[in-house]
Write a structure and sequence with these properties.
alpha+beta; elongated
Length: 140
């Protein structure tokens, strides 16, 4: 996205942003901003990994974002998030390796499940605790 120093009030009314196809898809709905999507992914599973954050050095765009994750086993990965899903693009933070041909995962859960047995255990335990709480709630 372009940043400008001008006052938006100084812009002419016919800027065309509303009709600009770069900002909307064919149904006229807003395109997902992958940085926001990446932040949501991080917030969803941060409790089950050692560290996870959206990369500040690799470029985020409307169609791609990069997430650094360190599993509880202390393995580091750089993940690419696109409309196709998530995949490992490097075995360290803030890196990409074009030679890596890793599969896309539809969800961060399945990706982390394949990378980290400790993630699987922590996530499973959290799920069980939530189910127990719901069970108690419904009995009271």
């Amino acid at each position: 996205r372009m940043e400008t120093d001008c006052n938006p009030m100084e812009l002419p009314n016919n800027t065309g942003f509303e009709e600009d196809s770069a900002y909307t898809d064919f149904e006229g709905t807003e395109v997902k901003d992958m940085r926001l999507e990446a932040e949501a992914v991080v917030n969803d599973v941060l409790f089950a990994v050692r560290n996870m954050f959206v990369s500040k050095t690799l470029p985020c765009a409307e169609d791609v974002a990069y997430i650094n994750v360190e599993t509880r086993e202390r393995n580091r990965y750089c993940l690419e998030l696109t409309e196709a899903g998530l995949r490992v693009v490097a075995y360290d933070f803030d890196q990409t390796d074009d030679r890596l041909q890793t599969p896309y995962h539809e969800t961060v859960y399945s990706l982390l499940d394949s990378l980290s047995p400790a993630y699987r255990e922590v996530f499973g335990n959290a799920l069980l605790q939530r189910l127990e709480a719901l069970k108690k709630e419904s009995q009271s």
